[in-house]
C-alpha cells in the first residue's frame, strides 16, 4: 500500500468528477485528499486551478501521518513505562540473567547447550540428566539474553530500557499490520484507517495487562516473539495483498517463513500465527468464494507456515522427547490427578476471567486466585459459560454489521487459544496477565471499530471531536493504570507481598516470601511462610526442604529428619534428597543410616559435581561406624 502521508498526488488535468468531493459513504482512493481540513482558495470565477490545489494541499499539515502517529505511540510508551526503568531484577531474572552461566560464553559447548537442552536445563550449571525440567524449548530467547548481556551486563536499567523498546517496536508493527488488514477488508477512509490502527496499537501498547511483559525483564520473551511473529505476518500481508506496491513474492514468502521460525524458537505461543493466517484466508481475503474454495486457498497460503511449524516440532521433539507435554512440578503434587475433563470444565471460567482482565484491568497480579473447576456449579461453570456464549454471539452479530469486528475477533481468539491447554502449566499459573499479550491487539481493534462506527452513525450523531477526546482520555487513563501496576514490579518484596495479598492461597508466593525472609536472616519469618505453604498441601517439596534445612541449622534435628524422610519418600530418585537425609542422620549420630543414604546418593548420581565430595564423606562415615564398633567391643 502506497503511504499517502508522504506525498499526495493530483491529476494535472482534473475533470469535473475528479475535483468533486466524494460522498462520505463512498470508498476513497489512497490519494484522496478530501479528509484534509483548511480553506482552499479559488480563482476569480470560483474555479480552482490544479497548481493552486496542489499548493493548498501541500500547506495543510497531516496530523494523521504514519510518522506522527508512531511518534505519538512512542510518547505514550514513555508515559506508561518510564517508571519501570528504575525497577530491580525480580522473580526469575536472577536465574535467567544475573546468575545465568551462559552469559559471556560463546564457545561451541555453550551454543550446543542452548540448542540441545530445554530452556531451564540450558541455564543449569550442572549437566542435565534424562529428566524433563520444562516443556519450553526457546534457543532464540536464550541467544537474545546472551546478546543482551553483552550490552547491558547486570545493569537492570539498561535491561528495562531494552524491554520497553522491544514492546514499542511491537506496537508500531501492530499499527502497520492493522492498517494493511483494514485496507483489505473495509472501505474506511485512509485517514480513519490510520487513526483506528493507531488507537488499537495504543491500547495494545499501554493496557495494564502488558505491565507483566514489560516491567518484568524476563517477560521480554513476549515482545521479542511478537516482533518476529508480526514481522512475518506483515510480509504475508504484503505478498498476499500487494495492491500497487512492487513485490517479490518468493522473497517475501521466504522472509515470512523464516521470521515465523524465529518466533517459534523464541516462544511456543507463536504457533498462533498459523491460526491467524488460516482465519484471514477463510474470512478476509477469500470471503467472496465458496467455502470449499476458501479452504483450498487457506491450505495453500498456510503451507509455508505449516512446514516451518512441522520443522520446529521435529526439532522440539528431538530435544524434549515430547511435542506438547504436561507440566510436572514437585511443589504441585496434586496436579497429577487433573484430567482433560477438569481442563474442559475450567474453560468457561478461564475465558470469563480473561475477558474481565481485558475490559476491567483493575485487579491484576502475577498470580491470580483462580483454581480448577471440577463440578457443574452455577457460579463456577454455568454462569461463565452463559457470559462467554453471550459475548461470542454479540461478536458474531457485530462482525456481520461491522466487518472490522471480524478482524478484531481473529486477533482476540487465535492468540489466546494457544494458552487454553491448562495442563501445560501448574495449577496456579493457568491465568496470567501475559497470556493476553497478543490478544490485546484484537481488543484494541474492537474498541477502535466501535468508536469509528459511532463516529459515522447517523443515529448516534456523536461529534467526532468528542469521540477523539474520549479516545485520548482512555489511552491516558490506561497509561496511568499501567504506571501504577509497574510499581508492583519494583522489587521482589513489592512483587510477592502484593501477590500473596491478591492470592493468599498461592504456594508460589509463600515459597518466595520464605526465601526473602531467609535472605533477611529471619528464620522464624521464613518458617512461618513455609508452614503456610504446607497447610495448602503437606507434600510441597521446596517448603519441606527449606524448612527442614532451617530446623537442622537451629538445633531441631528430629523435625528436620521427619521432613527429609518425607522428601525421600516423595522423590526416591533424587540424589540430593538422600544426601540431605544422610547429613541429618549423621548429626544425630545415626551413622549406619547416614552411610546407607550416602551410598544411595552416590549410586543415583555417580558422576555428579559433588560425587567426589560425597565419596570422601562416605569414607568418613564408614570410619566412624568402624570406630564405634571397636569401642563397643
Radius of gyration from the alpha-carbon trace, in angstroms: 30 Å
Unreliable parts: 1-48, 127-132
Distance between the termini: 96 Å
**Main sheet specs:** none
Secondary-structure-derived class = mainly alpha
Can you tell me the overall shape? elongated
What percent of residues are in strands? under 5%
Mean pLDDT: 85
Helices, by number, come to 27
Q: Write down the secondary-structure element order.
A: HHHHHHHHHHHHHHHHHHHHHHHHHHH
Provide the helix percentage: 55-70%
Number of strands: 0
Draw up the topology in text.
Blueprint: H1 16-19, H2 50-59, H3 66-81, H4 93-98, H5 108-116, H6 119-122, H7 139-152, H8 156-185, H9 190-206, H10 211-214, H11 221-240, H12 249-264, H13 272-285, H14 291-320, H15 340-359, H16 378-401, H17 403-417, H18 440-456, H19 464-486, H20 492-502, H21 507-519, H22 523-536, H23 541-553, H24 557-570, H25 575-587, H26 591-604, H27 611-632
Helix pairs in contact: 3-8, 3-9, 3-19, 8-9, 8-11, 9-18, 9-19, 11-12, 12-14, 13-14, 13-17, 15-16, 16-17, 17-18, 20-21, 21-22, 22-23, 23-24, 24-25, 25-26, 26-27
What does this structure look like?
The chain has helices spanning 16-19, 50-59, 66-81, 93-98, 108-116, 119-122, 139-152, 156-185, 190-206, 211-214, 221-240, 249-264, 272-285, 291-320, 340-359, 378-401, 403-417, 440-456, 464-486, 492-502, 507-519, 523-536, 541-553, 557-570, 575-587, 591-604, 611-632. Residues 1-48 and 127-132 have low confidence and may be disordered. It starts with 15 loop residues before the first helix and ends with a helix. Helix 3 (66-81) packs antiparallel against helix 8, helix 3 (66-81) runs parallel beside helix 9 and helix 9 runs parallel beside helix 19. The protein contains 27 helices and no strands. It is elongated and about 105 Å long. It has 633 residues and is mainly alpha-helical. The protein is 64% helix and 0% strand.
